[in-house]
Amino acid sequence: MENASHLSVILDLSPSQWYQSSQTSGDKHPLSLAHFLPQLFVFLNAHLASQHENTLTVFGAFPGKSSMLYSSNETYIQADADSNTFQPFKTMNSVIAQRLNEELESLPEDAEAPIALVGALTKSLCTINRRSHPSDTLNATSPNPSKLPTPRLLVISVSPDLSASYIPIMNSIFCAQKLKLSIDVCKIFGPDNVFLQQAAHLTGGSYISIDRRDSILQYLMTTFLSPPAVRRLMAVPTEDRIDLRAACFCHKQIVDIGFICSICLSIFCKPTPVCSTCRVKFPIKTLQRLKEAVNPVLPPNIPAPKLPAEAPPATPRVMPPFSMPHPGFMPAGLFTPKKMSKIPKPAPRVPPGMK
Predict the structure, then answer these.
(1) What biological-process GO terms show up in the record (predicted)?
(2) Which of 131, 193, 187 is nearest to 6 (CA)?
(3) Which domains does the chain possess?
(4) So what's the pLDDT on residue 138?
(5) Do the bridges between strand 267-268 and strand 259-260 make them parallel or antiparallel, or are there none, so unpaired?
(6) CA 238/CA 9 separation, integer angstroms
(7) Stretch 306-335: mean pLDDT, rounded?
(8) Residue 328 confidence class, pLDDT cut points 50, 70, 90
């Protein structure tokens, strides 16, 4: 019997993006947040019903903040009893809907801050790490690691890329690789997210960009319901092309061609005399060579780099004739063919018993 599965879901709850997704002008398949939540609840209930030991956590990424909406390990007030509904499922649905309404009502109405996807991703990784390494207590021993739930993470995204979050997302990817955790991404609205594509590719997850948003439940059930161990036996849809571009450290822009510091591996969109991360200084000749090569590559809105003034060439030192040889070199005439011929050759070895 396979191990239980722990699913951590991150919801991108940007009000402006969900409003654009619900508009019917020029879109054949609009999807609003109110129509999306019931289909999400069916998917979460199916995950909990597939095995009794399965666990679940739901995080919400709001503008400027992130919070936990639900955790199966916590105790909540039971919802009103209904003979036609399984009580734990109804409790989970009501808790998520209530927490979601409270967080959305507390958001300011004047300006929308960037979505806190990195914060929700970090909290989810911390929760998974705590579940994967339970501490010993006085009254109970830690469970067998082979019986712990297998963790996985699902990101439901509607927002575009945020270049300033490139480094934190890459750090989260490295953390997920160390935890042997797969990150799945379901892109509902907007252009493809470059950083989330890389997260799914580097952790062995699936990245799906939905064409028909009115069939979101079918995508969730067929692609993201089964754990990674079962997906190896299934034909799970994946992306054929993956965008592996990076964001520069200087302007926080996604670049096609960049320049990497050989010391700290920082990425820059143009050659700079001094690395802004490790403060190492690059040779002037190298900068001049890069400047000549990058002129047709740089975008028109990025100015050419200013190079420091080159120092005057030093006066060459002339060695007097018949001086001592340079260290590391052997003087000429020592091993000439004429003198090499005078070196006696070793006598051939004769095997014992032969003359």
Answers:
(1) nucleotide-excision repair; regulation of DNA-templated transcription
(2) 131
(3) 5-132+149-231 (3.40.50.410), 246-294 (no CATH)
(4) 40
(5) antiparallel
(6) 19
(7) 47
(8) very low
Residue 119 · residue 127 · CB < 8 Å: no
SS3 218: helix
Q: What is the pLDDT of residues 14-38, one digit of tens each?
A: 988 888 888 866 667 888 899 999 9
For the chain, list the strands marked E by DSSP.
Answer: 5-12, 55-62, 65-71, 150-157, 182-187, 207-209, 246-247, 254-255, 259-260, 267-268
Task: Find tokens 């509902």 and name the residue.
Answer: 188
Tokens encoding 77: 């007030």
Tell me: pLDDT of 321 over 60.
Answer: no
The tokens for 231 are 């997906």
**What is residue 85's predicted lDDT score, i.e. its pLDDT?**
75
**Helix and strand numbers, DSSP H then E, in the chain:** 10, 10
Structure tokens at 3: 């191990």
The distance from CA 158 to its chain's CA centroid, rounded to whole angstroms, is 17
Return the sign of the alpha-carbon dihedral for residues 121, 126, 129, 130. negative
Question: Cβ neighbours of residue 55 under 8 Å, at least 6 residues apart?
Answer: 4, 5, 6, 7, 72, 73, 131, 149
